[in-house]
């Protein structure tokens, strides 16, 4: 033989040449697997489904005690919880020959879940299906129902603890808000009575009216003052006229008029000064009063706004306390039983066909490997 014929094995040729032997071996292995499966005890599966719904109360949603779907799944598979399932089963079925341990029960249970939203308030919810597998249909049915029952009770206890915690927190916040609201209302009444905003506003209106009258008086005084200044200028110009030097009587009349006009001008100037000072003082006082009215108004508005905000908070807290009281009275649970486990009548295993096919495939693979190995040894010998 040459080197190529020694080292090269054609798998297709080998399989085809030994097809009947391979087929016979495969049938033997498959038949053996089927017979073996026939002697295995039947396996049944009981299913119980619950609905996990989160708390509807806003404060409860944020509570650290509120459990999610995954939390309930994990809780149901803890050794302590499984032991409580076993204890309840044994207490309810003292004559049962079934013996369980948490490790054994854990292997018997499988969990499936699907998330969604409740129609009422669109809060996330989840269907959790517990599947218990075993050889005794009655036993696994009881185990599945006990499991969902204890999970519901555990959820109820957690919710009761959660509601008590929330209730105390709401009560403390309610008392604090009520105390703050009463203090603000008392302060508002005191400020309104002591500040005397209406009196300040009335005083401001009076001074504004006086200011306006003073401004009008000053304008009239300025007009009269300018008129007298013009008259004085005319008289002084006449007195300087040379043609009137010989008219002593007329000149005396002009001098008397000039003196009277000067006296009037002095009086008007004094009035102008007094009115100017009064206007300046009134402008200062009205400006101060306007700032005071603005500050007092802002303070009252701020108090009114704070009282309104606290009143809204007070109403919200009152509603939350009422909702919490209703939840407390209902003693609800996050877990709702959707369907109890029903005693199965049809075995779910062993799956003889699947076992036979897998065994046959493995047998065929093993036979082909042996045939190819033997062919290779023959070629190399």
What does this structure look like?
The chain is α+β, with helices and mostly antiparallel strands. The chain has 2 domains: 214 residues, no CATH class; 147 residues, Helix Hairpins (Orthogonal Bundle), CATH 1.10.287.2610.
Beta content: 5-15%
Distance between the termini: 10 Å
Shape: elongated
Q: Element order, helices and strands?
A: HHHEHHHHEEHHHEH
Please tally the helical runs, counting DSSP H or I stretches of 4 or more residues: 11
Summarize the amount of helix as a percent range: over 70%
Total strand count, please?
Answer: 4
* Alpha-beta content class: alpha+beta
Average pLDDT for all residues? 76
What's the structural domain tally? Answer: 2
The radius of gyration computed from the alpha-carbon positions, rounded to a whole number of angstroms, is 53 Å
What strand line-up does the widest sheet have?
Answer: 2-3-1-4
Low-confidence region ranges: 1-6, 57-66, 116-123
The largest sheet, given as strand count, sense and whether it forms a barrel, is: 4 strands, antiparallel
């Amino acid at each position: 033989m040459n080197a190529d014929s020694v080292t090269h094995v054609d798998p297709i040729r080998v399989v085809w040449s030994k097809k009947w032997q391979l087929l016979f071996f495969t049938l033997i292995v498959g038949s053996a697997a089927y017979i073996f499966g026939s002697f295995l005890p039947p396996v049944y599966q009981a299913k119980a489904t619950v609905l996990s719904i989160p708390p509807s109360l806003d404060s409860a949603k944020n509570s650290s005690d509120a459990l999610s779907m995954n939390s309930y799944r994990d809780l149901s598979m803890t050794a302590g919880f499984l032991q409580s399932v076993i204890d309840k089963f044994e207490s309810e079925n003292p004559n049962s020959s079934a013996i369980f341990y948490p490790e054994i029960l854990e292997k018997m249970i499988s969990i499936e879940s699907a998330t969604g939203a409740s129609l009422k308030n669109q809060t996330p919810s989840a269907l959790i299906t517990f599947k218990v597998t075993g050889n005794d249909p009655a036993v696994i049915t009881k185990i599945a129902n006990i499991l969902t029952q204890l999970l519901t009770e555990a959820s109820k206890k957690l919710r009761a603890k959660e509601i008590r915690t929330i209730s105390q927190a709401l009560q403390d916040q309610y008392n604090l808000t009520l105390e703050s609201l009463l203090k603000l209302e008392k302060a508002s009444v005191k400020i309104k009575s002591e500040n005397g905003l209406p009196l300040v506003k009335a005083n401001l209106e009076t001074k504004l009216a006086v200011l306006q009258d003073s401004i009008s008086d000053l304008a009239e005084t300025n007009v009269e003052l300018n008129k007298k200044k013009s008259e004085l200028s005319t008289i002084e110009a006449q007195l300087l006229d040379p043609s009137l030097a010989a008219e002593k009587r007329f000149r005396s009349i002009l001098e008397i008029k000039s003196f009277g006009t000067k006296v009037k001008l002095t009086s008007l100037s004094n009035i102008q000064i007094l009115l100017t000072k009064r206007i300046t003082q009134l402008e200062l006082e009205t400006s101060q009063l306007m700032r005071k009215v603005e500050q007092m108004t802002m303070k009252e508005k701020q108090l009114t706004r704070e009282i309104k905000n606290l009143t809204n908070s007070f109403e919200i807290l009152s509603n939350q306390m009422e909702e919490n009281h209703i939840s407390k009275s209902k003693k609800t649970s996050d877990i709702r039983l959707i369907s109890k486990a029903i005693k199965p009548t049809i075995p779910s295993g062993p799956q003889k066909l699947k076992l036979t096919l897998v065994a046959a495939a493995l047998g065929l693979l093993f036979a082909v490997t042996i045939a190819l190995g033997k062919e290779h040894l023959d070629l190399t010998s």
